[in-house]
Structures
1.
Amino acid sequence: MLMGEGAMAREGARSKDSAKPGIKEVAAVAGVSPTTVSRVLNNRGYISQETRDKVHAAMKRINYTPNDIARAMLNGRLNLIGMIVPYVSSPFHAQVVQVIEHTLADRPELERSYIDMLRRNMVDGVIVNSLNIGAEAYAEMGLSLVGIDCDLGEASVQIASDSYGIGELATRRLIDDGCSRILCLRNNSRMRMPANKRTDAYHDVVEQAGLPALVREVEFVKSDDEKSAVVAKIL
């Protein structure tokens, strides 16, 4: 493909602008040497707190994220725990993974740590099927985003089911079966997710039918026994 000088200049400018900042850029903003930035990142040698603060402030200012792969080559340690299971669709193995995740960190902090890990390992795009923290945290990554049943904002591609239609169909089916007290279990209502529309549909349908609305929040990451306990209290 041939391009004129003007087009080549614009293309070069775009490439330069889209390049991820590195240690040299951090050093320039912080007013220190690249070696000093490296020592701060790897916690090596004596560095005054003032210098550390300047480096971290510069990193935040230009949205710099250390590359874990490069650091692992230097330190021989990646700070990751691997786990092998035969298949995640098995309820048993899914429960084991869930317990291990909760042992390592609570849900929101775990999701934030995953975001940081993805940024440090230089991925170019992320598919998200979870939203325990605000969509802003994903937008700040500056990567291509695809959300499956979760709203990541206008800058992302959304793939979602007809959540309202699902909630409406399920509620009407129970009413047609003669149910007059219908319990709706939902996840955290503070999370901005398309699945929230299922609860909206439930409210609309039971109101139209003149039935009471019974909605309870329960974390879906809880065990089946914990979920059953929530239902038992209501019944």
2.
Amino acid sequence: MSRVRLGCVKYLNAQPLIYGWPGEVLFDHPAALCQKLAAGELDVALVSSFEFLRQPTYTIIDDIAVAADGPLESVFLAHRGPVEQVREIALDPASQTSVNLLRCLLAERQLHVRFVPEGGEAQLLIGDQAIRFRHENGSSWQYWDLAEQWKRDTSLPFVFALWLVRPEVPNPGAIAEQLRALRDLNLQRLDEVIAAHPEFQPAFCSRYFRERLRFHFGEREKQGLRAFRASCEKHGILPPHHEPLRLV
């Protein structure tokens, strides 16, 4: 089982899902992992949920996700002044999920902005970079938390990442069981997971893992994913598609 070619996002938020995996793991940014998974260079990867919506040929490992049911603190628009007055946003291209979530949230508010690679008056930040930015800059910026805005709009959690399996991978059920068991073990030993990452403040990690993040893919998370798909279709980001989720 440990010989599976497995990739995982290189962010703190994934550690309760991958810490202690017995085999090799390729850690990279979400966009790079999506490319490797699509090219057949990986068998299984924890990647942006938008990748499944864009390419629904993959199988989702059920009951595991990186999700939020309210404020997350690591996916946000950093801005000064009212969001309604922002005209240019610098995007972090590492995660298509966060970029397209931002597009949906802005479109729902009929806010029209120009996206630029750098130098905008506001910037989308995700993952560890967002955590460090907020700790370093504090109240000198305002933070428009995307998961919090999604919850206000839909009353649903938002799913940022999923374990996806390529269709030709043999015995995906056994891989799924091992990953679910690892998640369960890590949630029981969170203090050990936190101690393994001393570059982040333990108090922040404890709040982040225990209060901000959700690591299950239950019915409400599935509703949230379907709602994201519908929003992407509504705003022309994705074409209409109604194939059911394939789970293992």
3.
Amino acid sequence: MKIVEKNLHQGFIKVVPDTPDDLWHLYNVIYKGDEAYSYSSRAIKSDTATSRPKSGERVSAFMGVKVESVSWDKFLGKLRVHGLIIHAPDIIPTGAHHTLAIALNQQMTLVKKEWPKHILDRLTKASETEKPLLIISIDDEGFAIAETKQYGYETRVEQRIRLPGKQDADKRVEATKCYFKLALDSLQKLWTANHNPIVVIGAGYVKNDFINYLQDESKELCKAIVDVKSVNNGG
């Protein structure tokens, strides 16, 4: 989270959430009675004779609401702050209900009458938090890639496979290469966005063979690996 401006004398903090964890933090620090400000869109009824009844164009404007409720959707990656409009351009009536939909990388201003220390500490910690880990668990039945969150973890990719038996050595070798390439491509796609540290876990020989494959195919990803752990079952 980026803290753009903090002015406790005037009672406001401007922030930009840049990870899903940041939206979760904001969900936990915005209370009923606070004021929240950000850019938002709202349908405006048209006065033209050609418009259909109750139809109108949607305009984008900087708006503020007196908070009544807050909801957080981790799957859509949005924080919804609902309340009564207290600040808006003249074409938007104040006192009406409205919901600010705060997305990643969208600046918002939060105003409180008082800023308790635990809330300030939470926002400060969120602004200093290191990148989440990408954890890939792999064995001979499949792989899964998860991203750590401060509220737990989120599985980003999961793939089940069936390799040829050990008696078909040539087919198994070729199928394993295709399998490792699929895992590598999935990991690369997720890693490219933020260059997260990587942890590899899994059954001994499969995990080790996959790391050897990474060393040959992607030196960049290998440098991002911060830990390797052995477990009985991967995927």
